[in-house]
Known about the structure:
By secondary structure, the protein is α/β, with parallel strands linked by helices. It folds into two domains: 7-101 and 195-296, 3-Layer(aba) Sandwich (D-Maltodextrin-Binding Protein, domain 2); 105-185, D-Maltodextrin-Binding Protein, domain 2 (3-Layer(aba) Sandwich), CATH 3.40.190. The protein has nine helices and 13 strands. Strands 2-1-3-10-4 form a five-stranded mixed beta sheet, with helices on both faces. The longest helix has 17 residues, at 13-29. It is globular. The mean pLDDT is 92.
Amino acid sequence: MKKTWIIGTRGSKLALKQTEIVVKQLTSLYPDREFPIKTIKTRGDAVWNKPLHLVGGKGLFVKEIEDELLNGSIDMSVHSVKDLPAALEGGLILGAVLKREDPRDAFISLVHNTLNGVPARSRIGTSSLRRKAQILRLNSEVQVVPLRGNVDTRIRKLRTHSLDGIILAYAGVKRMGFTEHIKEIIPLDIMVPSAGQGAIGIEIRNDDEAIELLRPVNDPVSSEEISIERELLSRIGGGCQIPLGIHANITNQELTLYVSMGEENGRICMHEKYTYPSKQAALAIQEALDKLKPFLF
Protein backbone atom coordinates (compact mmCIF):
# COMPACT_ATOMS: atom_id res chain seq x y z
CA MET A 1 0.00 0.00 0.00
CA LYS A 2 1.34 3.42 -0.96
CA LYS A 3 2.94 5.65 1.68
CA THR A 4 1.32 9.04 0.93
CA TRP A 5 -2.40 9.72 0.56
CA ILE A 6 -3.34 13.29 -0.37
CA ILE A 7 -6.63 14.44 1.17
CA GLY A 8 -8.66 17.18 -0.51
CA THR A 9 -11.00 19.51 1.38
CA ARG A 10 -12.51 22.94 1.36
CA GLY A 11 -10.53 25.62 3.16
CA SER A 12 -13.20 26.71 5.64
CA LYS A 13 -12.43 26.43 9.34
CA LEU A 14 -15.04 23.71 9.82
CA ALA A 15 -13.95 21.73 6.74
CA LEU A 16 -10.35 21.79 7.95
CA LYS A 17 -11.39 20.78 11.46
CA GLN A 18 -13.31 17.80 10.04
CA THR A 19 -10.36 16.83 7.85
CA GLU A 20 -8.06 16.97 10.86
CA ILE A 21 -10.39 14.49 12.60
CA VAL A 22 -9.97 12.12 9.64
CA VAL A 23 -6.20 12.59 9.50
CA LYS A 24 -5.89 11.90 13.23
CA GLN A 25 -7.77 8.61 12.91
CA LEU A 26 -5.85 7.50 9.83
CA THR A 27 -2.46 8.46 11.32
CA SER A 28 -3.29 6.49 14.46
CA LEU A 29 -4.12 3.44 12.36
CA TYR A 30 -1.25 3.85 9.88
CA PRO A 31 1.68 5.62 11.60
CA ASP A 32 4.02 4.70 8.73
CA ARG A 33 1.93 6.62 6.17
CA GLU A 34 1.47 10.33 5.50
CA PHE A 35 -1.83 12.15 4.90
CA PRO A 36 -1.11 15.68 3.65
CA ILE A 37 -4.09 18.03 3.23
CA LYS A 38 -4.77 19.99 0.03
CA THR A 39 -7.32 22.81 0.27
CA ILE A 40 -9.53 23.37 -2.78
CA LYS A 41 -11.76 26.40 -3.36
CA THR A 42 -15.27 25.52 -4.49
CA ARG A 43 -17.93 27.65 -6.10
CA GLY A 44 -19.84 27.71 -2.83
CA ASP A 45 -16.82 29.27 -1.11
CA ALA A 46 -16.75 32.09 -3.66
CA VAL A 47 -20.42 33.13 -3.38
CA TRP A 48 -21.41 34.61 -0.02
CA ASN A 49 -24.01 37.23 -0.96
CA LYS A 50 -26.83 34.86 -1.99
CA PRO A 51 -28.69 31.93 -0.39
CA LEU A 52 -27.34 28.58 -1.63
CA HIS A 53 -30.62 27.53 -3.26
CA LEU A 54 -30.37 30.56 -5.57
CA VAL A 55 -26.88 29.69 -6.83
CA GLY A 56 -27.08 25.95 -7.38
CA GLY A 57 -27.80 24.09 -4.15
CA LYS A 58 -26.28 20.63 -3.69
CA GLY A 59 -22.85 20.20 -5.21
CA LEU A 60 -21.74 23.81 -4.68
CA PHE A 61 -19.13 22.68 -2.14
CA VAL A 62 -18.19 19.50 -3.98
CA LYS A 63 -17.66 19.71 -7.75
CA GLU A 64 -14.15 21.20 -7.83
CA ILE A 65 -13.00 18.68 -5.22
CA GLU A 66 -14.51 15.79 -7.16
CA ASP A 67 -12.75 17.03 -10.31
CA GLU A 68 -9.38 16.78 -8.55
CA LEU A 69 -10.26 13.35 -7.21
CA LEU A 70 -11.13 12.14 -10.69
CA ASN A 71 -7.94 13.53 -12.26
CA GLY A 72 -5.78 11.94 -9.55
CA SER A 73 -4.34 15.07 -7.96
CA ILE A 74 -5.82 13.96 -4.62
CA ASP A 75 -6.46 10.44 -3.31
CA MET A 76 -9.53 11.08 -1.18
CA SER A 77 -11.72 13.97 -0.07
CA VAL A 78 -13.46 14.84 3.18
CA HIS A 79 -16.99 16.28 3.20
CA SER A 80 -19.90 17.04 5.42
CA VAL A 81 -22.16 14.33 4.01
CA LYS A 82 -25.08 16.77 3.92
CA ASP A 83 -23.19 18.75 1.24
CA LEU A 84 -22.93 15.77 -1.11
CA PRO A 85 -25.43 15.45 -3.96
CA ALA A 86 -27.50 12.26 -3.90
CA ALA A 87 -25.64 10.97 -6.98
CA LEU A 88 -21.83 11.14 -6.92
CA GLU A 89 -19.77 11.60 -10.08
CA GLY A 90 -19.20 8.41 -12.06
CA GLY A 91 -16.25 6.43 -10.71
CA LEU A 92 -16.52 7.93 -7.22
CA ILE A 93 -17.95 6.33 -4.08
CA LEU A 94 -18.40 7.16 -0.42
CA GLY A 95 -15.54 5.10 0.96
CA ALA A 96 -16.28 5.63 4.64
CA VAL A 97 -18.59 7.42 7.04
CA LEU A 98 -17.13 8.22 10.45
CA LYS A 99 -19.22 7.68 13.57
CA ARG A 100 -21.84 10.37 13.32
CA GLU A 101 -22.06 13.28 15.73
CA ASP A 102 -25.50 14.27 17.07
CA PRO A 103 -27.33 15.20 13.83
CA ARG A 104 -29.84 17.64 15.30
CA ASP A 105 -30.00 21.39 14.78
CA ALA A 106 -29.06 23.79 17.56
CA PHE A 107 -30.88 26.96 18.60
CA ILE A 108 -28.59 29.80 19.65
CA SER A 109 -29.98 32.97 21.21
CA LEU A 110 -29.13 35.75 23.61
CA VAL A 111 -32.73 36.22 24.74
CA HIS A 112 -34.74 32.98 24.30
CA ASN A 113 -34.21 29.45 25.62
CA THR A 114 -36.12 27.41 23.02
CA LEU A 115 -37.11 27.80 19.39
CA ASN A 116 -40.66 26.79 20.26
CA GLY A 117 -40.83 29.63 22.76
CA VAL A 118 -39.88 32.58 20.54
CA PRO A 119 -42.68 35.17 20.29
CA ALA A 120 -44.31 36.46 17.11
CA ARG A 121 -42.22 38.86 15.00
CA SER A 122 -38.94 37.43 16.35
CA ARG A 123 -36.04 37.54 13.88
CA ILE A 124 -34.44 34.11 13.37
CA GLY A 125 -31.37 33.76 11.14
CA THR A 126 -30.89 30.94 8.62
CA SER A 127 -30.44 30.61 4.86
CA SER A 128 -31.70 27.01 4.82
CA LEU A 129 -35.08 26.52 3.13
CA ARG A 130 -35.51 23.36 5.21
CA ARG A 131 -35.05 25.24 8.47
CA LYS A 132 -37.18 28.17 7.28
CA ALA A 133 -40.15 25.93 6.46
CA GLN A 134 -39.95 24.13 9.80
CA ILE A 135 -39.55 27.38 11.76
CA LEU A 136 -42.67 28.80 10.08
CA ARG A 137 -44.50 25.56 10.76
CA LEU A 138 -44.02 26.30 14.46
CA ASN A 139 -44.78 30.01 14.27
CA SER A 140 -45.93 31.61 11.01
CA GLU A 141 -45.33 35.10 12.43
CA VAL A 142 -41.58 34.66 12.90
CA GLN A 143 -39.39 36.65 10.50
CA VAL A 144 -36.72 34.40 8.95
CA VAL A 145 -33.59 36.41 8.07
CA PRO A 146 -31.06 35.13 5.48
CA LEU A 147 -27.79 34.25 7.18
CA ARG A 148 -24.62 32.70 5.76
CA GLY A 149 -21.01 32.48 6.90
CA ASN A 150 -18.74 30.36 9.06
CA VAL A 151 -20.02 29.15 12.43
CA ASP A 152 -18.25 31.94 14.35
CA THR A 153 -19.38 34.56 11.83
CA ARG A 154 -23.03 33.55 12.19
CA ILE A 155 -22.83 33.53 15.98
CA ARG A 156 -21.32 37.03 15.87
CA LYS A 157 -24.20 38.21 13.65
CA LEU A 158 -26.62 37.49 16.51
CA ARG A 159 -25.62 40.88 17.88
CA THR A 160 -24.58 42.78 14.76
CA HIS A 161 -27.82 41.91 12.90
CA SER A 162 -30.09 42.27 15.97
CA LEU A 163 -31.32 38.69 15.70
CA ASP A 164 -33.43 36.92 18.31
CA GLY A 165 -31.82 33.61 17.45
CA ILE A 166 -30.03 31.55 14.81
CA ILE A 167 -30.10 27.87 13.91
CA LEU A 168 -26.96 25.86 13.12
CA ALA A 169 -26.11 22.18 12.89
CA TYR A 170 -25.11 21.06 16.38
CA ALA A 171 -22.23 18.97 14.98
CA GLY A 172 -20.56 21.99 13.41
CA VAL A 173 -20.97 24.09 16.54
CA LYS A 174 -19.45 21.31 18.66
CA ARG A 175 -16.53 20.67 16.31
CA MET A 176 -15.69 24.38 16.34
CA GLY A 177 -15.85 24.55 20.14
CA PHE A 178 -18.83 26.90 20.53
CA THR A 179 -21.29 24.69 22.44
CA GLU A 180 -21.49 27.20 25.31
CA HIS A 181 -23.63 29.40 23.02
CA ILE A 182 -26.31 26.72 22.50
CA LYS A 183 -29.63 27.24 24.25
CA GLU A 184 -31.40 24.16 22.84
CA ILE A 185 -30.65 21.09 20.77
CA ILE A 186 -33.89 21.05 18.80
CA PRO A 187 -35.87 17.78 19.11
CA LEU A 188 -36.28 15.72 15.94
CA ASP A 189 -40.07 15.93 16.08
CA ILE A 190 -39.79 19.73 15.84
CA MET A 191 -36.99 20.05 13.28
CA VAL A 192 -35.83 17.21 11.01
CA PRO A 193 -32.17 17.60 9.90
CA SER A 194 -30.79 17.40 6.37
CA ALA A 195 -29.89 13.98 5.01
CA GLY A 196 -26.34 13.29 6.15
CA GLN A 197 -26.22 16.02 8.78
CA GLY A 198 -23.64 15.41 11.51
CA ALA A 199 -21.67 12.88 9.44
CA ILE A 200 -18.17 13.20 8.01
CA GLY A 201 -17.79 11.26 4.76
CA ILE A 202 -14.66 10.29 2.84
CA GLU A 203 -15.09 10.20 -0.93
CA ILE A 204 -12.70 8.11 -3.05
CA ARG A 205 -12.28 6.66 -6.50
CA ASN A 206 -13.75 3.16 -6.68
CA ASP A 207 -10.38 1.65 -5.86
CA ASP A 208 -9.76 -1.53 -3.86
CA GLU A 209 -6.67 -0.16 -2.12
CA ALA A 210 -8.46 2.98 -0.89
CA ILE A 211 -11.51 0.97 0.17
CA GLU A 212 -9.31 -1.33 2.25
CA LEU A 213 -7.43 1.62 3.79
CA LEU A 214 -10.66 3.25 4.98
CA ARG A 215 -12.44 0.13 6.20
CA PRO A 216 -11.34 0.56 9.87
CA VAL A 217 -12.63 4.18 10.11
CA ASN A 218 -16.07 3.38 8.68
CA ASP A 219 -18.82 3.19 11.32
CA PRO A 220 -21.30 0.52 10.16
CA VAL A 221 -24.38 1.98 11.90
CA SER A 222 -23.71 5.54 10.77
CA SER A 223 -22.99 4.27 7.27
CA GLU A 224 -26.29 2.38 7.18
CA GLU A 225 -28.24 5.42 8.42
CA ILE A 226 -26.60 7.61 5.79
CA SER A 227 -27.34 5.06 3.08
CA ILE A 228 -31.05 5.11 3.97
CA GLU A 229 -31.19 8.90 4.03
CA ARG A 230 -29.38 9.25 0.72
CA GLU A 231 -31.54 6.57 -0.94
CA LEU A 232 -34.69 8.48 -0.03
CA LEU A 233 -33.06 11.77 -1.06
CA SER A 234 -32.14 10.26 -4.41
CA ARG A 235 -35.64 8.96 -5.05
CA ILE A 236 -37.20 12.29 -4.12
CA GLY A 237 -34.67 14.16 -6.22
CA GLY A 238 -34.12 16.71 -3.49
CA GLY A 239 -31.39 19.19 -2.70
CA CYS A 240 -31.03 22.66 -1.25
CA GLN A 241 -33.80 23.86 -3.57
CA ILE A 242 -36.43 21.85 -1.65
CA PRO A 243 -37.27 22.40 2.05
CA LEU A 244 -36.52 18.76 2.84
CA GLY A 245 -35.45 17.07 6.07
CA ILE A 246 -34.57 13.38 6.24
CA HIS A 247 -33.11 11.57 9.22
CA ALA A 248 -32.66 7.86 9.90
CA ASN A 249 -31.83 6.58 13.37
CA ILE A 250 -31.00 2.93 14.02
CA THR A 251 -31.03 1.75 17.64
CA ASN A 252 -31.21 -1.88 18.74
CA GLN A 253 -31.95 -2.94 15.15
CA GLU A 254 -34.98 -0.62 14.98
CA LEU A 255 -35.14 2.13 12.36
CA THR A 256 -36.89 5.42 12.99
CA LEU A 257 -37.16 7.48 9.81
CA TYR A 258 -38.09 11.17 10.13
CA VAL A 259 -39.19 13.07 7.02
CA SER A 260 -40.27 16.68 6.65
CA MET A 261 -40.97 18.42 3.36
CA GLY A 262 -42.51 21.82 2.88
CA GLU A 263 -42.65 24.96 0.85
CA GLU A 264 -40.60 28.12 1.28
CA ASN A 265 -43.67 29.98 2.57
CA GLY A 266 -43.76 27.61 5.55
CA ARG A 267 -46.58 25.33 4.41
CA ILE A 268 -45.56 21.82 5.44
CA CYS A 269 -46.62 19.08 3.04
CA MET A 270 -45.41 16.30 5.29
CA HIS A 271 -43.87 16.01 8.74
CA GLU A 272 -43.85 12.36 9.78
CA LYS A 273 -41.85 9.58 11.36
CA TYR A 274 -41.89 5.86 10.55
CA THR A 275 -40.69 2.95 12.68
CA TYR A 276 -39.61 -0.38 11.19
CA PRO A 277 -37.10 -3.13 11.92
CA SER A 278 -33.82 -1.90 10.45
CA LYS A 279 -33.81 -4.80 7.98
CA GLN A 280 -37.02 -3.39 6.49
CA ALA A 281 -35.60 0.02 5.62
CA ALA A 282 -36.90 -0.33 2.05
CA LEU A 283 -40.46 -0.46 3.40
CA ALA A 284 -39.93 2.71 5.45
CA ILE A 285 -38.55 4.49 2.39
CA GLN A 286 -41.47 3.34 0.26
CA GLU A 287 -44.06 4.41 2.82
CA ALA A 288 -42.49 7.89 2.97
CA LEU A 289 -42.45 8.10 -0.84
CA ASP A 290 -46.10 7.04 -1.07
CA LYS A 291 -47.03 9.85 1.34
CA LEU A 292 -44.94 12.35 -0.63
CA LYS A 293 -46.17 11.40 -4.12
CA PRO A 294 -48.97 13.98 -4.30
CA PHE A 295 -46.42 16.74 -3.69
CA LEU A 296 -43.68 15.46 -6.00
CA PHE A 297 -45.36 14.62 -9.28
